[in-house]
Every structure is written in structure tokens, then in C-alpha cells.
Amino acid sequence: MSQQGYVATPPYSQAQPGMGGYPAGFGSAPAQPLYRHYGGPPQSFPAPPTGKDTCLWSPIPPVKSSSIYIQQRHHNLGTLACNMLLLRLHSCSVLKVDHPPLAFPAGPGAVQSPQAPPTSHLTQQQFQTSPPTAMGHPPMGPHSSQMAHPQSPLAGPTMAGPQSMGGPPPMGGMGRPFPGPPPPGAGGFQQPGPGAAGPPGHPQQLQGTDSTVTWSSTVAITKLYGFVGPFSMSQIKPIPGIKTQVIEDDQAKRGGQVYTTNLRGQVPPLVTTDYTVQDQGNASPRFMRCTTYSFPCTADLAKQCQVPLATIIKPFATVPKNETPMYVVNHGETGPIRCNRCKAYMCPYMQFTDGGRRYQCGFCNCVNEVPAFYFQHLDHMGKRVDFYERPELSLGSYEFAATLDYCKNNKPASPPAYIFMIDVSYANIKSGLVRLVCDELKTLLDNLPREDGAESSMVKVGFVTYNKILHFYNVKSALAQPQMMVVSDTAEMFVPLLDGFLVNFQESRAVINNLLDQIPDMFADTNESETVFAPVIQAGVEALKAAECSGKLFIFHSSIPTAEAPGKLKNRDDKKLINTEKEKTLFQPQKAVYEQLSKDCVSQGCSVDLFLFPSQYVDIATMGDVATHTGGSVFKYSNFQVERDGQHFLSDLRKDVEKAIGFDAIMRVRTSTGFRATDFFGAIHMNNTTDVEMAAVDCDKAVTVEFKHDDTLSEETGALMQCALLYTTISGQRRLRIHNLSLNCSAQLSELYKSCETDALINFFAKSAYRAMLNQPLKTVKEILVNQAAHMLACYRKNCASPSAASQLILPDAMKVFPVYLNSLLKTGPLVGSAELSTDDRAHQRLSTTAMGVEDTQLLLYPRLIPLHNMDVASDVVPTPVRCSEERLTDAGMFLLENGCSLFLWLGQACPPEMIQSIFNVPSLAHVSIDLRSLPELDNPQSQKLRSIVDSLLDQRPSSMKLMIVKQKDRSEIMFRQHLVEDKGLHGGASYMDFLCYVHREIRQVLT
Ligand SMILES: [Zn+2]
Predict the structure, then answer these.
(1) ∠ CA(317), CA(962), CA(946), 5° rounding?
(2) In what residue span(s) does the Sec23/Sec24 beta-sandwich domain sit (predicted)?
(3) Distance, CA 721 to ligand 1 centroid (Å)?
(4) How far is the CA of 400 from the centre of ligand 1 (A)?
């Protein structure tokens, strides 16, 4: 396996190597070790306070609305000072005055009226719309919502500049068939006006954007987790009228709008917001999202702030029908036009000069001749007159038809093949899985992916069954009956037939259906329980090699491969290793055979999708290794039962077979001078330091790319990046998919913090931490995560925020939800280190996250908790989610919780019988079966509405989610409660409030 796959370079671009004695896997320790409070005990977070700890949260008049006050009157030697594990903060009354940390309506009132329009919260809007004078006003009393620090006289004037940012996009020219409205300005790009940054040297300019979490008074103590502490109870002073929060704010402000990509360094709407993209020269945020849209000019600044500079690229992201389609540019035999020096592809960042005869490359500044066939005159603005006719000049994303030079061995590519490989050992036969798969394939194969407008799919199909030996099938259309060929020597795998193994489904339908009918019966009496695994993958690769095509293996497998063969595995699960130095070995794949197999797969363009049906440990860390280096996925259905889990599995299989995908891909990310891509995370393989190889890449897979400085970046030219993905389409054409993105650069750190994207940041942190845990103890990984976060926030405070008391926790506006996401990450299965979790589940989550895009990590780390008991059945709207805390649950309520992997329907103990009746058609809660896996189809508005919500959620997610019914106080509730990420973790890990205290203390330590 490539070096990149296992030995990570430090994710902290700026940390000095070797400091603090950390191994190379996860970056170096920061100069000042700050780990005193974290991770000492086996648990990741300080243990719950003992009775001695006393913590008083004193009331602070909520005058300064944009900062957090934490006052600790008493604490126990400062160690667990504010460990508030037991303190329940009552909804909005505690958490925020101004900018609540989360997006959901706080307070019971909000829950009951989900349709209530978001109110207040102008802070962000002030940059765009409100008059600067407003900023200078004194606070309006306790509920003042939009004020910066009143103590700063500079607050008003310094805010004046940013008004010009992000004005409405010019909409002239709509209705052109291609490619859309002319962007303003010469060359089609607008840079933010000079006023946008505000005058340099005035850190106060960001005052309006400080996040404002004010713990004003209010700590209510409740008995949680069976522990009652001697905490003082202060009075709760609810702060009314404050509902808006981050996600909801963004939805209110930018939802339903057109996001036009003509501005350099423009921060897109959040992934949770519903928006439409108009491509005007930069890639849609669906394809590329950055941790910040303003890079620091120098490596020193980057090192100082420790904010990772990264882009998450999802090259095949699904684009809604109403957005710019992917145009294909075909220059015939000439192929795409590229810079002679850096090989960047023609794009909007090339500047034409000399009457159109030359162009200067935006990436390396090389001046190139324009080929004669491509010559075009320039208009009076210096823009080519064919600007709007050429996607490669005016759009952020487009494709080039590739020439033979871009094909393996200069031979045209072939359409890919899908090979279905079914484990027919005893477990899979007995569970009914084999019959289920075979029945499904008969109809599913009609839905193989095809080019737009094509009558049928060109993807070929093949079939293998196996246990200890492999059976190949000849399903040539001319045959009356399928033929089986057995290979029992699994040590040297070969494919016994070429002709008739990979066929067109339409042509061979009769023979294939015949085979699929026969397979379950052929093995019905098997008592073979041993399986091989590596030889199965090897057989798939060999078959594709022989057919000279790329493709995908769909493997349906049940058990750890113990049969005598290459890649044989043994049970190495050892719970005793948890929370020791050796815990990492549980996640390290057993290399040797599998490492070589990954390489073989990648060089053949063979992706592996693994559907696992285990009843016990199967070493997913190893079995999933090939899948996660070949752009594949691992699906897991523990203790599979057809009746209970069949539909869930079939939904996954259907999505997986039908999804948009490219094969045999190689990706290169080019950058303008001064910085470069240095590290890559994803279901990828790397043979060198620049080329990202992917046997396949589908619409849900994302690659996270980290950047580092080589030199000083210029504020004037900004930072440009171009992602070029060479791949084979589903019909066998070789194409280049290009995504371009331009960012700002600034010598002011305040610009960087203002342009941060928390959802992208946490995607980077999750992937880098999950990689690091292969090489370092979990404790160290978690310490480094928290430490880097503290440094990021301390640097903001020191350099960008106005002076304030040390007791105030000040977060940059764009990062105000960062702590809650980070805390949730620390509590995820892979990082939590609990013997109660299955090692395979932890390994599985680790592997799945590696290829996730920003939407998926956001949802995973902050699930949606949707109240259903007051939903408006007449409306199409899904009720607004509430904060992920037990606090939000009500005895008489009904909630849906989803995180992209799991879907729960939670029923309160006092759920009204009418509600139960209308949804489940039973008289009371006691009659509801928790084994239900789908909701009964009842003809009443409540049932229809709820089912439509569930269907729309399932439709939006990359994989299917199994619906689980959970009753309050029932045993089944434990699984559900793991996902209430603001609460203390069931398997360890702090509540959100505790974590904020902890981070605050770390920040203070950094600052002193
Ligand atoms: Zn160049």
C-alpha cells in the first residue's frame, strides 16, 4: 500500500516536526504541551465530578451579548473545575443570547411551532445590508441581539467596509442557452471590492462576527445519569425571543436562493441549506468545499492560526436538474488545451493577451501560444468574444473528451463490467440471503447505469459463487443453460473462461435468469461453512484483466475467511487492548496479501464493494481494506435476517448498483504558485505524492486534500486550484472532468476566520484523526485534536477579537458550532475507546468516514432530531430539527432521528394513543412492536406525512437507513441515545457544555 495510505504526514501544516516526541503519523505536538487535563484517565474526558466539586455559575447581566462568560467561583483546584456533566442547561435560556451555538430552535416554544419564521440574528447580515451606523449603538438591553462589544468604540466604523461583500449576483442575461449570464467585469470574474477586508490592522473589524454564547445565569441541575451532585442551583432567567441558530440562520438567509460562483473567495451556503448553484467560473460547492475561503498569505500566519487549509472534493457529486449540467468539450484529435509548463487545463483563470494570440497561465504564469484552431479575437475588455460559447472559459466545472494519449497503452477504453460474487456457504444459504440476492438481481440488472439518453447500459455483468472454492458461470446468450466451471486451487487464482463470463444482460437475460433461479437450489444442502476471501477479489481482478476493462466487484460475504488460502484471517479481536498503546493494532489491516491485492485492483480499475453479513467478528479492518483503497464501500448487516433486514439491504444494493460512477480514475490537484496539495484522504491509492488513483469514484465519494505553503501568496492574485480527474465513463469513454476554484488570500488572520467553513473543517479533522489512530494511541490523537482546536480559537481571540475578560469564551462567528462538532467527533465509536462497542463496528465507521463528503460528516456528527408530534400535516415541509439533546425530548412527543447511517423513531412514554393509532394502527404504545422495520401504510394524514418524511430522508442519503422503533425508557433507547451528541456520551465523552468549559480552559492556557 502506498505510504500515504498508512503513514500520514502531519495534518497540522504548520506544526514543527518532531516537537513533543510524537510519531510522524499525526503531526507534531504543538510547542507548548497542554495536555494536562485531557485524556489522562482511560476515559477520554475527565471523569464525572465527585461530590466535592462545586461549580457555581454566577449570573452575569447579559449586556455584552457577543461573548461567552464563564465565571467560576469555586472550583476544585482547577482540575475539573467546570465539569458540569450533571448540569442540564435549560434550552435557550442558557446557551445563547445572541448567536446560539446550534441551528435549531431553542426552547419548547420553538419546538411546538416549527414553522415560526426565524427571527433576529442580523450579525452576519450586517456585513451585507445593515447600515454601519447600527453597529455603533450601545446595547439595547438584555435581549439586544446584534451588538458587538460595546466597550469598543471602533466597532462601528470598522464595520463599514464589508458591506460591499456578497451583493446580489448580477442576473442579467438569464435565459441564454449556454452557458448562462455573463459575469460582471472583464474576464468574467469579480473580486471582492477593496472595502471587503476592511482596513488592515484593525482586528476589531470582526466584532460583529464573534460568536456569542453567553451563559448568562442559569444552570439548572437535573438528575442525569443517575448521579446527583451537590451543585448550586441558580435561578433560570429565560431569555425570550431568541430562536435563530447557525443552520437555521443560514437557511433563512440563503435558503432557496441562487448561489452564483462568480466571486473569488466567496463562502458558500452551509451544506444544510437548500440552495441552487449557478456556475459562473468557480466550481459549485457541491464539488469543492474549503475549510476557509481566504488563505493566509504566509506560512507563518498559517502556522500561527493552525487552521487546516483543505478542500473536500466530490468530483461526481449529484447535481440537481435545475443546475448547470456538465458540458463536454471536444477538441477532437488535438485534445484539451493545456499550459506548456504546468499542464493545467484551459480554464477561466487563463488570461488572454496579445490580441488573443497568447494566454498567461493563472497557475504558473507561463505565457503560452494559443493554437491556431483555438484563436479568437478579444473584445474591448480583453475578453474572448466566444467567452460564453466555451464552457472551459466561463465555467468552474466541465469535461474534456480525452484522446488516446489519455488511455492505457494508447488503446480506447472499454465499458466497465460489474461482477456479482456470492458467498454460498452455510450461513448465507440458511439466512435466505442467497435467494434474496438472486431474486433481486433479475430485476436490478435492468437498472445498470447508462449514459444520458442511451437506450440501455453498456456495463457487462458476470457471476461467481464461492465458499472454499470458486464457481464461475458461462452465461453466453447462445447457451440454453448456464455452465459452471469450478476452480478449487485458490492459491494461484485464474479465470477458467473468457468467452461467456462477462456478458450484456439484455442479450443473455434468459440464461442469467435461469442461473439466478438455480443458484439458491444448487447450494441448498450445503454444509460448507468455511470461506475464502482474497482469492475471490483476485478472481474478479483477473477477469477484468482478461477482458481488458475496468469494473466493480459486488461481494456478498458472511464470515471471517478461515479456509486455507491466501488472505486467510484469524480472530484477533482483543478487548483488552482498548485504551492501551496497542489499541491501534485493532484497526490496522493485516497487510501482505491484501496490500498487494489493493494495488492489483487499482492498476486494473477494479473497485470492490463489500456487503458483509456477519454474525460475529470478521476483522473488518482487514476485510474492508481493499474496498477502501479502491473507491468502494463496505456495507454491514449484523445478524442478518431476511424479514427484518432484507429491505434495508436491498435498498443499499439498488442504490449502489444504480449510482453514477466513473472508473479507472486518476486525479491531480494543481495550484497557483505559493502553495500546493500535500496530503490526501479518501478511498484512494497513491503511488507517488501527487497522483490520486481511484479504481472507481462514485457520486458519494469525496477526497479531502490538504494544502501547505511553498512561498508567500499574493492578495491580488489569490489562490487558485484546479482538480483534474481522468476517468472512464460508464459507456467506456475516456474523459477529463475539471473543477476550478479561486480563493482569496489575506495578510489578515481575521479574513481567514471570517471565511471559515466549520462543516468542511470537521470533515478534515475527522479524516485526519481516523487516519492518525492507525499509528498513535487514541489518547494522543484526541489530545492533539483538542489542542489544535484550542490553538485555532486562542489565535482568533488574540489577534482578531476585541479585548475582553479572560472569563469570556469568544468564538469566531464562522466557527461557533465547531466545538459541538468536535466534541461529537471525540465521542464517535472509533475514537471513544469503549469495550462495549464492537471492534468491527468501530473499524467500519472509521473506514466509511474516510470517503465521506462534507454533507455526510456534518450529519454524522450532528444528527437531525425532528419533532413529529406537532407537525403540520397539511404542509410539505419537514419540521425544523431541534438540538440533539435529551433535553428536547418530551414524554408526550414523537421524534425522528437520522445521521445518515441510522434512523430512529422515538416514542415518548406519554405519546397520545390517537397519535399511536394513526401511525401504527394499534391502540396504545404498549402494542407497538419495536421489531417493525417500516411504517404501516395507513390512510390518514399523520401516517402519510410521516411516511413521506421518512421516504424523503432515505432518498437523500447515500446509503439506506434501517428504521428502528425506540420507546422511551425501553432497552432499545440506548442505541438511540448514543446519537444525542450534546449529552454526555454513553461510552465516555463529555457533554457539550462540559466540553466548552474544557476548551475554554485550554484556550486560556494557550493565551497565558
Ligand atoms: Zn501553467
Answers:
(1) 90
(2) 662-746
(3) 12
(4) 18
pTM of this prediction? 0.79
The per-residue pLDDT for 212 is 38
350 Cα to the center of ligand 1, angstroms? 9
Q: What is the helix (H) or strand (E) element at residue 69, kind and residue range?
A: strand 68-69
Q: Give the separation between CA 678 and CA 14, rounded to whole angstroms.
A: 12
How far, in Å, from the CA of 165 to the mean position of ligand 1? 30
On the question of pLDDT at 81 being above 80, the answer is: no
Confidence of residue 11 (pLDDT cuts 50, 70, 90): very low
C-alpha span between 82 and 696 (Å, rounded): 49
- Give residue 359 CA to ligand 1 midpoint distance, Å: 10
Question: 341: CA distance to ligand 1 center in Å?
Answer: 5
345 CA → ligand 1 middle, Å = 8
Q: Of residues 172 and 594, which shows the higher confidence score?
A: 594
Q: What is the CA(337)–ligand 1 centre distance, in A?
A: 11
CA 697 / ligand 1 centre spacing (Å): 27
Could you give the count of Cα atoms lying within 13 Å of 6 in the half-sphere of its Cβ? 13
- Is the CB of residue 765 less than 8 Å from the CB of residue 286? no
Residue 524 has pLDDT above 50, yes or no: yes
- pLDDT above 70 as % of the chain: 76
Question: Distances from the Cα of 67 to the Cαs of 307, 790, 805, 823, in angstroms?
Answer: 21, 16, 10, 20
Cis peptide before 179 (omega within 30 of 0): yes
The per-residue pLDDT for range 12-70, each reduced to its tens digit, is: 222 233 232 233 333 333 333 222 222 223 333 333 333 333 232 333 333 333 333 33
Instruction: Tell me the CA–centroid distance for residue 723 and ligand 1, in Å.
Output: 14
Distance 668 CA to ligand 1 centre (A): 14
- C-alpha 587/C-alpha 463 separation (Å) is 31
Please tell me the distance between residue 201's alpha carbon and the centre of ligand 1 in angstroms: 34
179-194 per-position pLDDT tens digit: 444 443 333 344 333 3
For residue 792, give the nearest of 972, 589, 1002, 649 by alpha carbon.
1002
CA of 353 to the centre of ligand 1 (A): 15
CB contact at 8 A, 205 and 750 = yes
Alpha-carbon distance of 158 to 135, in angstroms, equals 9
